[in-house]
Amino acid sequence: MKKCKKEGKKKKDVEMHRWFATENNKGVGVMEMKKVDHIGIAVKSLEEALPFYTDTLGLSCVGIETVESEQVRVAFLKVGDVKLELLEPLSEHSPIASFIEKRGEGIHHVALGVDDIELRIQELKNNGIRMIHEQPKRGAGGARIAFMHPKSAHGVLYELCERGGGR
Ligand code: ZN
After folding, report:
1. Fewer beta carbons within 10 Å, N or C terminal of the chain?
2. Cα(153) to centroid of ligand 1, in Å?
3. Across residues 55-78, what is the average pLDDT?
4. Which pTM does this prediction carry?
């Protein structure tokens, strides 16, 4: 009995691997995502949160700016090649304000760095992914960004982020 069970499981594993190998490489034009650009973290106040990141974790703050369209003030901290993006709501109309109200402070989104954001959006749409932004919009640091709908991404809010050279 036991032996049968084990073999059954093994067979299932192999089938699963085969499924991944074929489904993920069947030539639907999906390019590999190559890096995490930053992780967005919602905070109530930059003044209150920043000392934890700079003094306690020893990270350096590489910029603070206001993004009017999103009603947020943003601070970037560098951790190796990845940045942490602290997001403070500027008003109750900010999407970050409603996020904090519903869930409290914490991880808000993961941003994947891409080279050609229009192409990536098209690619995702071709694969049935619902986009919050079908056209890229301007984000912090002059980046062009677009969010995927978390319902299409197993509950994670993913941002696509294209940074032009030198911006
Ligand atoms: Zn972001």
Report:
1. N
2. 16
3. 95
4. 0.80
